[in-house]
Amino acid sequence: MGKYAEGTRVPVAKSREEIERILQRFGADAFGFMSEPDKSMVAFRCRERNIRFDLPLPQRAAARNVERWEREVRERWRALALCIKAKLSAVESGIETFEEAFLAHVVMPDGRTVGEHAVPALERHYKDGTSGALLPPPSRPAKPRSE
Questions:
Q1: Are the C-beta atoms of residues 58 and 73 closer than 8 Å to each other?
Q2: pLDDT for the residue numbered 141
Q3: 17 pLDDT band (50/70/90 cuts)?
Q4: What pLDDT digit, counting tens, does each position of 91-105 carry?
Q5: 17, 10 contact by CB (below 8 A)
Q6: 35 falls within a domain
Q7: Does residue 2 lie in a domain region?
Q8: Which long-range contacts (CB under 8 A, 24 or more apart) does 66-73 make?
């Protein structure tokens, strides 16, 4: 099975436009796109939550050729558009709440996302062997009340 959007010819600008339309359709009242050499960002406000997706980009210097680098960038933008659309569709369908779908991407007062706060703690728990069990312990049957 190939990677999603592998070999896509959809320009980055079209993917960004699609993301903007999706966000507007689902009620985002503010949004923006930012770029740095090694990543792009999509930020938006929806349901009174500030959300940010950081999109890591391939390093241009490491790319064997410009066409390949451009293709990989297009593929990542298509995947991000799918990700955002899928999360909002899951919320709309009642599969999960907005907070559940976007929790890792909620921007905290210090400018970092919940994911940036939580991932290091998760890594520590797994490294130290203090992570919780995959399944919760079985429920105990209720004791009959004596009257």
A1: yes
A2: 74
A3: very high
A4: 999 999 999 999 999
A5: no
A6: yes
A7: no
A8: 71/7, 71/8, 73/12
Q: CA–CA separation, 111 vs 94, rounded Å?
A: 29
Q: Which of 46, 47, 71 is nearest to 57 (CA)?
A: 71
Q: How large a percentage of the chain has pLDDT more than 90? A: 67
Q: Is residue 90 part of a domain?
A: yes
Instruction: Kindly state the average pLDDT of the residues 22-28.
Output: 96
48-60 residue pLDDT tens: 999 999 999 998 8
- Output Rg (C-alpha) for the chain, integer angstroms: 20
| Residue numbers of the domain that contains 50 | 12-128
Domain count, the chain: 1
- Angstrom distance (rounded) from CA 6 to CA 72: 8
Q: Which tokens in the block code for residue 11? A: 């320009």
Per-residue confidence (pLDDT) for residue 65, from 0 to 100 = 86
Determine the Cα–Cα distance for residues 132 and 61; give it in Å rounded to an integer: 42
With CA atoms as reference, report the closest residue to 99 among 110, 111, 88.
88
- How far apart are alpha carbons 12 and 97 in whole angstroms? 29
Tokens encoding 141? 């049957």
Q: What is the residue type of 124?
A: R
Residue 141 lies in a domain: no
